Amino acid sequence: MYENMPEEKINKTYEKLKKDAQAGGYIINPDIDFTKKLVKGLLVNEDRYGYQACPCRISIGNKQEDLDIICPCDYRDSDLNDYGACYCALYVSQEIAEGKKKVESIPDRRPVEEERKMQKENKIESIGSLKYPIWRCKVCGYLCARDNPPEICPICKAKKDRFERFL
Amino acid sequence: MELNFEHVKGINKGDIKLYALSTCGWCGKTKELLNDLGVEFNYIYVDLLEGDPRQQAIEEVKKFNKNCSFPTIVINNEKAIVGFKENEIKEALS
Question: Do A7-115 and A123-167 show the same overall fold?
Fold first, then answer.
């Protein structure tokens, strides 16, 4: 069961994730053992599917369908706000990082498959009067007005495919 | 078709099935808790399955938990505990 994921690779990824999180104003779960298991899960999923799908959600192995659960998932910020941790608890709030609140297993806010499909079909129509369309990064909320979304989000480094047309 | 669950020996508290993901931290904690409680249970890592068995496992979870989230514990094919709910699990199995 993927026991052969090299410790060194896990540690390196963990350190990078921690650094990137801090740079972006996020905090990685201070429970190092727990967090390293999640990091291992991300690497295992990358090997399996070609992208770092959430280790606590079932992936269907189709990137387009799984975009919303590629870590950091579309639901991280809302979960951090409501529960102080993201779904898998890789990211936590300041309060939890300082030990003032305990991290707990939370409900999954990802809509069920049928709802996700409906949401995709009901995307907001563009407002014709704008000079440029507005693109929104679904990971961090960054907005920009330009013909196409940037290749990489300048704020959180999420890739182009994580952007949605906002207006 | 029967799914291939791993069996853990222990005190019989009914038919306990744990649907889990091998990569998930909360699933790991749930399995540890069941081990600590010393109950007899069966578990399956759905992410390690492929093809039909994987789809079957997903359908089985959905019957009790339409979100198909993990971990899902199914007790006696009637009650489900979704997520690592430490107290709820202890209460149900003590």
Answer: no
